Amino acid sequence: MIRVITDSGCDLPMEVLEENQIEMVPLKVTFEDGESYLDRVEISPREFREKMYRCRELPKTAAPDPNTFMEVFRRALNEAGEAVCICISSGLSSTYQSAVLARDMLGTEKVKIIDSLSASLGEGILAIRAADLARQGLPLNTVFEMLINYRDNLKTVFTLDTLENIVKGGRLTKFQGLVGNILDIKPLFHGVEGKVEVLEKLRGRRRALRRMVSLIGEMSREVEGCIIGLSHMDCLGEVTELKKEIERLYKPARILVAEMGSTLGTYAGKGGIMAF
Q1: What distance in Å separates the CA atoms of residue 83 and residue 112, rounded to the nearest whole number?
Q2: For 154-197, what is the HEC assignment?
Q3: pTM for this predicted structure
Q4: N or C, which end of the chain has less CB nearby within 10 Å?
Q5: C-beta separation of 194 from 92 below 8 A
Q6: C-alpha–C-alpha distance, residues 12 and 122, integer Å
Q7: In angstroms, rounded to a whole number, what is the distance separating the alpha carbons of residues 150 and 167?
Q8: Highest mean pLDDT among 4-18, 158-172, 205-219, 258-272
Q9: How much is the mean pLDDT over the chain?
Q10: Of the given ranges (162-166, 168-172, 228-232), which has the lowest mean pLDDT?
């Protein structure tokens, strides 16, 4: 059976990874005090956010190096013969490039690398889909083509409760962040070809969350019977309510809820919510 590999940017809980036999390659996160950890291996999402809240500067994430991917690919080829690797968007990290370099160094066509053009549970749902296809015993090239098609139809929308982290990260000026906070602006973002763009700006958290729910229906015509992912940064109560509303309105096959890890959590900040 095809081995499915992803990276820690997927935000899939460990039990979901194990249930689907997905191997995860961790990114590295480094804090302002110089301490580094393997994401979701040496530091949990809860430990990450507690440490980040205490920092003046945002932590930095680094992609796995090609040698790490080479070891994982070699093991997958020895044990399964073929592999597909789902990576966090190349617009957010160099992880995809690192995986491609490792594959090329091995000189094999038995490992397919996919740029998810997403992150968090957008990437995670793609990995789950890969595991489903692998269990069906489909040829590697067929699996690859089906995953590319699935990826190209995947939609993303998310909102932030605070602009502090994207100001720290240089995505907004301090003045823009100050104005946004004073006016209680809650921007809605969406993914466009692997990058993040502002979709709408709304006044107030409740209005932003209501609009988020309606956008899920507008952006995905066939929500019923599909998997929806909701990842969050320290706001489980609100996400639980969102989940109930989405189930009531759209009747998806499953709604997967997970905490954001370091890759997206760094910029989302407390109260960030993403839907896929």
Answers
A1: 6
A2: CCCEEECCCCHHHHHCCCCCHHHHHHHHHCCEEEEEEEECCEEE
A3: 0.90
A4: N
A5: yes
A6: 10
A7: 33
A8: 4-18
A9: 89
A10: 168-172
3-state secondary structure of 39: strand
Over residues 44-62, the mean pLDDT reads 92
Distance separating alpha carbons of residues 46 and 175, to the nearest angstrom = 30
Judge whether 238 and 129 are in contact, CB under 8 Å.
no
Distance between alpha carbon 196 and the CA centroid of its chain, in Å? 12
Strands (DSSP E) along the chain, which ranges? 3-7, 22-25, 28-30, 36-38, 60-62, 83-87, 111-115, 157-159, 185-192, 195-203, 227-232, 254-259, 273-275
Model pLDDT, residue 175 = 33
What is the token pair recorded at 146?
A: 């089906």
**Domains of the chain and CATH, by start:** 3-27+63-152 (3.40.50.10440), 157-275 (3.30.1180.10)
Helix (H, G, I), strand (E, B) or coil at 257: strand
pLDDT tens digits along 56-111:
888 999 999 999 999 999 999 999 999 999 999 998 899 999 999 999 999 999 99
Instruction: Locate 262 and state its tokens.
Output: 């370091």
pLDDT-above-70 percentage for the chain: 88
Query: Which residue in 26, 79, 52 sits closest to 272, CA to CA?
Result: 52
Cβ–Cβ contacts within 10 Å for residue 238, how many? 16
| Torsion angle of C-alpha atoms 67, 72, 73, 78, degrees rounded to 10 | 130
